[in-house]
Amino acid sequence: MSKPTLLVLAAGMASRYGSLKQMDGVGPAGEAIIDYSIFDAVRAGFGKVVFVIRSTFADSFKAAFPASRFGGKIEVDFVYQELDKLPEGFSVPAERSKPWGTNHAIMMGADVINEPFAVINADDFYGYDAFRTMATYLNSLTAEDRGKYCMVGYKLANTLSEFGTVSRGECIVDEQGYLKGMTERLGVKRQASGKVTYEEGGEYVEIDAESTVSMNMFGFTPDYFGHSERLFVDFLRKPETMANLKSEYYIANVVNNLLESGEATMKVLTCDAQWFGVTYKEDKPDVEAKIRSLIRAGEYPAKLW
């Protein structure tokens, strides 16, 4: 069976951060967080990386991350998430400018991915052990395996920013370590009291800081693309979807549906990797410091490529 593929979601314009944070250097030799993800993916055994980007910044992105950057150690491809990439019979609402969401981004990889694949965010640092754990699971699958999905879970308290709110997928996990359901929580932050809350209906609702959350590190088999297309049509047919110019087709929408219907299972993998990310510009110095610490500990070379 082919080596697994890594699908990197890099199409967001990073409005809160103020620039294309996916390209921002955080390593001592100017490496971006993406570079560390690719470096970890290579040594974990992934065979290809597919970047999901947008045509508006494609030239800049490809100039920053050409295939040659990675020294021929992994195959590189690019796909494009655009508003008008919709199923036949649907069109973009006249005033809509917001992308359709994370699962729509995943769908862009359907024409170039035919093997088990992992999905990650471009601006999250997942750590080598997360990639190793994911690759081990995906490599255990056979060509006949369908719907045996997985995700790497993290503790909510370890995934917050000190400088603003974040969005997290809160997970319900059974005793066998399988996901039972996932709820997208928006506006998550730690309050001055120490409690962690999310925003719902204009109010702050407390959430357990020890909760398992998704950081969009998922593992899928290729049948996921077909399910996504079918459920996207259902999503677009809802009147409220087209009426709300900010409605999004989240990964949680598809995963929850497939778990409820019994068409798929999702194993929640645990690992010792350290997660951190750049949501706001103010996060960058902390990320740089953590990377320097990992380099001193021998986890990464001072220059990746």
The count of β-strands is: 13
CATH topology-level name: Spore Coat Polysaccharide Biosynthesis Protein SpsA, Chain A
Query: Can you write the helix and strand succession as a string?
Result: EHEHEHEEHEEEEEEHHHEEH
For the biggest sheet, the summary is: 11 strands, mixed
Low-confidence stretches: 13-18
Structure, briefly:
The protein is α/β, with parallel strands linked by helices.
Task: Describe the 3D structure.
This protein has 305 residues and is α/β, with parallel strands linked by helices. It has one domain: Spore Coat Polysaccharide Biosynthesis Protein SpsA, Chain A. Helices cover 27% and strands 26% of the residues. The protein is built from 8 helices and 13 strands. It has helices at 33-44, 58-64, 102-107, 128-139, 223-237, 239-243, 251-261, 284-296; strands spanning 5-9, 48-53, 75-80, 117-121, 124-125, 148-155, 166-173, 179-190, 196-200, 203-207, 212-220, 265-269, 276-277. Strands 1, 2, 3, 4, 6, 7, 8, 9, 10, 11 and 12 form an 11-stranded mixed beta sheet that branches. Helix 2 (58-64) links the parallel strand 2 and strand 3 (75-80). Helix 1 packs across helix 4 (128-139). The radius of gyration is 19 Å and the shape is globular.
What key attributes describe this structure?
13 strands; alpha/beta; 11-stranded mixed beta sheet; 305 residues; Spore Coat Polysaccharide Biosynthesis Protein SpsA, Chain A; two-stranded antiparallel sheet; 26% strand
